[in-house]
Design goal:
This protein has about 475 residues and is mainly alpha-helical. Helix content is about 65%, strand content about 0%. It contains 22 helices and 2 strands. A hairpin with a 2-residue loop joins β1 and β2.
Length: about 475
């Protein structure tokens, strides 16, 4: 284990996190809500801890092995969350450290589940930092670091592979650092486009920035208790709906489109399945909700917004879908499993895994009828090998196991019933945000106990890092020297 590289990366990330707190400090100074010192103190402590790690741990060799890549990713996300919680504690917005840690992990992992109840008294700087964690975590904190410091590590592809959401990572450009820069450039341009459109729709620069960061990172933190519903604007709903879908698309497809491969991008099988599932959900929700609202356009407006919000795992809401008919809530429940495309900022199992699992099931049915038939599974025009099928099946098993074990652990404290505990575990592993029942869009996770919040913190980290980087921390071989 190359501990010097690990400490140097950790130091660089803490310095970067300290710098990322400064825009929130600037917002605090503009609005003068009294949270400026809390943000400045947090940035100072974070930077003071990162600087010696960066300066004193210069490694002789910078190359990383796969094991060390997974270890760094898991460790970095845990440590950044521990320091990122400081502004909430120092400002007394969330004085209980476990609540603050829950909020920070929910932000960085782009889950959007919240323990915050009193939005009206929360200062502007703290709410900005809360949403900025979405924007940082959406593309990945290590991806951002590699974009800014491409020479930090020799072989950095292991880091991006471990942090990037999806069953596989493919570099857009030969050098990992250049790939990181291209990804963040696309990410920034799309974010700026949404910000400008929200300004034209009538939002203030502050509100537009908050909801742009929540949409881009597919996180869903809002500065209003009613979420996007607070604006009661068809134009705002339409803009955010569009960009929630956009940020659920594989960013590699945007790069292909820009560089002349737009036809290839449009023929992506994953993209087609993603849009098919989304459109099917919108149609079904519109049909079901037309009777509920008594108006097909209102049903389409709320149905399309909520379908985009859940399948992209953003978690914004324009209405309390807890009050919807059971059939409509069931559609949202199923979308929580699916998620969006690999290589996007969204969570969930990812469309590619869902489609391949469906194809695997169909093949087994065909082989039952025709046992001697040789049938290969194809995706994106290529044959999917047995190893990839094995990995996807294993991922599905562990994914479901995490939800079941998590919901059982949440039930031990007895605060909520079956509906809340199952959807709480699901929404944390899928990084969606709101669940059903008391933890729906009109509720919060504040009433869960400390043990339950710790369980959900672990589930959110597992979901964002696609299970394995966090799970390897518990394997004894990862801690042995010389392996």
């Amino acid at each position: 284990m190359n501990y010097r590289v690990i400490l140097r990366v950790l130091g660089a990330l803490l310095l970067l996190e300290a710098l990322c707190m400064l825009p929130a400090f600037a917002i605090a100074e503009i609005y003068r809500d009294g949270d400026g010192m809390a943000l400045l103190l947090s940035a100072g402590i974070t930077g003071a801890c990162g600087l010696p790690l960066w300066q004193l741990s210069k490694p002789k060799k910078q190359d990383l092995r796969a094991k060390e890549g997974f270890f760094i990713v898991a460790l970095v996300w845990v440590v950044l969350s521990l320091f990122g919680a400081l502004p909430f504690v120092f400002s007394r917005v969330l004085p209980n450290y476990m609540d603050a840690l829950f909020e920070t992990v929910s932000g960085f992992t782009t889950t959007g589940a919240t323990t915050l109840v009193d939005f009206d008294s929360a200062p502007h700087g703290i709410l900005f930092w809360r949403s900025f964690t979405h924007w940082i975590g959406g593309m990945g904190v290590l991806v951002l670091t590699l974009a800014l410091l491409p020479q930090l590590i020799g072989r950095a592809s292991f880091l991006m592979k471990a942090e990037s959401p999806g069953p596989e990572f493919s570099k857009i450009l030969p050098k990992t650092g250049n790939t990181a820069k291209v990804l963040y450039l696309i990410y920034g341009v799309l974010s700026l486009a949404e910000f400008v459109l929200l300004l034209f729709a009538g939002l203030s620069p502050y509100d537009a920035a908050i909801h742009t960061m929540g949409t881009a990172g597919t996180g869903g933190f809002s500065n209003y208790a009613l979420s996007v519903g607070a604006f009661d604007s068809v134009w705002v709903d339409a803009i955010i709906t569009f960009f929630m879908v956009v940020f659920g698309i594989n960013f590699a497809l945007f790069y292909r489109s820009i560089t002349g491969g737009i036809r290839e991008a449009l023929h992506s099988e994953e993209l087609k399945w993603f849009l098919r599932i989304f459109v099917a959900a919108v149609v079904l929700l519109t049909v079901i909700l037309t009777g509920y609202y008594g108006n097909v356009f209102t049903a389409l407006r709320h149905g399309s917004f909520q379908a985009a919000s859940i399948i992209s795992t953003t978690g914004y809401a324009t209405t309390d879908f807890n009050l919807w008919p059971v059939a409509a809530k069931m559609i949202l429940f199923l979308l929580m499993f699916v998620g969006s495309c690999a290589g996007s900022t969204a969570g969930g199992m990812k469309v590619v895994r869902v489609v391949l699992l469906f194809k695997l099931a169909l093949r087994e049915i065909h082989l039952t009828i025709h046992p001697r038939k040789v049938e290969a599974i194809r995706f994106e025009g290529r044959v999917v090998d047995k190893e990839k099928n094995r990995q996807i099946t294993l991922f599905f098993f562990i994914y479901i196991a995490c939800i079941l074990v998590g919901s059982f652990l949440l039930s031990l404290e007895g605060q909520y019933g079956l509906e809340e505990n199952i959807t709480a575990a699901l929404t944390c592993v899928s990084n969606v945000g709101p669940g059903l029942g008391a933890i729906g869009p009109a509720g919060s996770f504040a009433d869960y106990g400390m043990f339950s919040k710790f369980v959900m913190v672990v589930l959110m980290l597992c979901g964002r890092l696609e299970l394995f980087p966090i799970l390897v921390l518990f394997h004894p071989d990862i801690w042995k020297r010389g392996n």
